[in-house]
Structure formats: C-alpha cells, structure tokens
Specification:
Chain lengths: ~140, ~140
C-alpha cells in the first residue's frame, strides 16, 4: 500500500506527464504519447473499428495523424488516479476548444505500469462524453 | 512476473467473470457487475456526462436501469488481458444483437485489482466503436 503522500506524488507525476503529451498532441505532435507508451500498449478510440495492439500499431496510426491535429486550447478536467501497487489508472475528461469556441469533450482512461522506475502507458481508451456528438440522445 | 500458464489462467478467469456479468446485464440484471466491482470503482460510459466515482454512485445508476436492458444475444469479441502484477486490464468489443438483427458494437475496458485473492473491477470504460452511431463519420 502507498501512503497518501506517495499516492499524491504518483498522481501528480502521471497527470503532469499526460498534460505534457496532450500539449504536444494539440500541436500536431503525437511523439509525446508514443514516448510515454509501453511496447505492449493496447489502444481504443472512437475512430478505429478495432483495438490496436502494441506500440508499432499505435505508431503507424499516430504517424498518420502527425501534423493534422491542432487545438488552440485544452483542459484536462477532473483527473483522478487510482494506484494499484505497480500500476495506476488515470481517468479524466479532456476538453478541446475549437477556434470558434466549440468544445469537444472526451472521456479518457490511461493505465500506467511501473517498470524499472518508469511509468509507461499500457492501455489507452478515448471516447466521446455524453454531451458530445449527441450520444446522450440515444437513450 | 507471471508464467504464461498463470497469465492464461487469470485471463480465462476474468473473461469468464465478465461474460457471466454480461449475461445477467443482457437480461436486465445489473447485480453481476455490481458484485464484481470494488468499493472504489470508477466508471465511464457514453450516456453520462461525468465519471462516476465509487460503488454507491454506480449502484444508483445501475439500479435506475434494472429491468430495462434486454438483448437476445451478445458476443464478447477479441478479449485481451494484460496482467500487471496484482492488477489486470481486460479489453474487448461487446456486440449486442437487437431483435431485428441490428448490431451495436462497443469498446470495453475493465481494470481489475487482486485483493485478498479476489479480482474486482476498479475501473470500467464503455464507449461506442467506430462503426456504431456514425462516430467514424466525424473524421
């Protein structure tokens, strides 16, 4: 078990790492996420029909998006970290702002694994929140 | 590290537990997932605007759906389990079939924690896959 101080330190470290990767992502640079991801990363998002297994598959996908994503401003809302010994789950809502002020809210889950003192992402799951793209209307 | 036999046994155990909870879910009974979830479970799906934190919040939500979900047939596609010492990440595609044969594909992530010999869900993330609800068209 981790002390609450250790838990808080891990939380801040992971949130900061994620924020840095998001900053690069929002300027067309996927390398932040690629550097943060482990070789056996597993990836899900709402634009691909099946799971991506492994860093080479994620790299191919992200390289196809290099230079194509630009967000003038983003927020990492309501982050929460669960620490499970040598793993941790970060969940948050990502809000990107378009030039016209439109917001695009997402749900994000990142599962990190601690290996040789380094926290690396082993699982990523992106999805739209209820208020985005009318998903909530389906109920 | 787990041996491949231990990994395979854990994988099968978690997939079987998930399948059992899904079977109950598809007959209007959310208790399978509630029994499988830990007290500090964190939950995301595309119908709620923010994360649910903790089993009481998940119970309130799931009880509001009791008796309202019915799926004649479902498939748990392409399950994959990553074992991280005392945690494990199960990802799969869930396909529910409507009476008219329509399919509703989802992405699912379950993070399990092993505590006192029991695997319990500490994080759930449901979302629509690209082929569902026209998400793919947004690109």
């Amino acid at each position: 078990m981790h002390t609450s101080e250790a838990h808080e330190a891990i939380s801040q470290q992971l949130i900061n790492a994620e924020r840095l990767a998001l900053s690069r992502w929002c300027h067309g640079d996927p390398s932040g996420f690629l550097e943060l991801s482990a070789g056996d990363v597993v990836y899900l998002d709402p634009f691909i029909p099946t799971r991506l297994d492994g860093l080479p598959a994620l790299r191919d996908y992200y390289e196809s998006l290099r230079g194509k994503v630009y967000t003038s401003r983003f927020e990492l809302h309501n982050p929460f970290v669960q620490v499970l010994e040598n793993a941790a789950v970060l969940t948050y809502h990502f809000v990107a702002y378009g030039d016209d002020g439109d917001t695009f809210p997402w749900n994000c889950t990142e599962v990190f694994r601690l290996t040789h003192g380094e926290w690396k992402i082993v699982h990523t799951h992106w999805s739209f929140t209820a208020t985005a793209h009318g998903n909530g209307a389906a109920h």
